[in-house]
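Methods — Computational structure assignment.
A single polypeptide chain was analysed. Its primary sequence is given first, followed by the predicted tertiary structure written as structure tokens.
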Amino acid sequence: MLEIREVSNKKQLKLFAKYPIQLYKGCPYYVPSLRSDEMNTFNPKKNFNIKNNPVKGFLCYKDGELVGRIAGLVSKEENSRSEEKFVRFSRFECVDDEEVFKALLGAVEKFGKENGAKIIHGPWGFNDTDREGMLTYGFNERSTYATNYYYPYFHKRMEELGFTGESKWVERRFVVPDKPYERINELAERLKRKLKLKDLTDEMSVKDIARYYGDKWFDTLNEAYGELDGYVPIAGNAKTNVLKQFATIINPRYLSVLVDENDDVAAFGVVLPSICQPLIKHKGKLFPTGFISVLRCIKKPRELEMALIGIKKEYKNSGVNAVVISKIMNNVVKDKIENLESNPMLETNFDILQQWKFAEYEVVKKRQTYRKDIGSLIG
């Protein structure tokens, strides 16, 4: 017997937050989310992405046993920018059972229909810095800190239920060169002088950059990513969440924030130390001892994850990305980083894909979102 329960109290929230640990127990490729982030999923005081947006979480039980979870979100910003009306599904994990898939996705369909949605799609995050896309290739590769792992049965079940592919991403593993890219360095120095750019990380702490240039950084981020699939601009108090998330794990050696002569953020690049190993070891919990391992990984990383690179539109074809890449890659080489992997890059984001065409890499993972008209799962 199947039963769907809406998450409505702290006990259910804890079950919701911990369920992926149960599902992927013993899987070497799964990397837990921070437990605190999962606990704050439905708290508008902590997760500003859900403020003023309808959101619900659901747990699925079969014969009394917890067998899955899912969250649904109706993004008013997304729906205001599109003629189509969507409900997003997120935080979707469950056992390999067709009835369970139907019940969980059906719960989100019903929730979406009640809020005027015509299409269900996902897995999307609550904004573009959240985890997005379902794994379709690379099941024997460990996830990054910023991505979800999925067993192979997930995407097969989605197709069997009549969902069709939507946005697609690739993830690359880069070969770290023995020495810096001399041609890129020479180009970077010329452009820096020509465009009158300075790198804030040369003279400011990450904390001060966030404090004094946070709004300008978000202006450039929203401008650079605004036209991409499913992008929801980050505004208001949501900025605070994102800055806290990034500032927690940023090492300034792998950060570049360029400002022009008008003191506007012309471009930026963020590459994050991988904290996957301590998250796996401590099952996503920072306290009481997990934070020590995380701090070690941040201070002296052996692995890095490419997070974001953004360029203000007026500098789009100027080559300014070379300045960002030069600074970060010089330190990657100097620090003898052992593994450099990208987070998901949209197949339609040709600007990002082309920025790394000079580097040697292999595609290690692929993922995508799925969509379907509302009605077939709930009748």
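Note: The mean pLDDT is 90.
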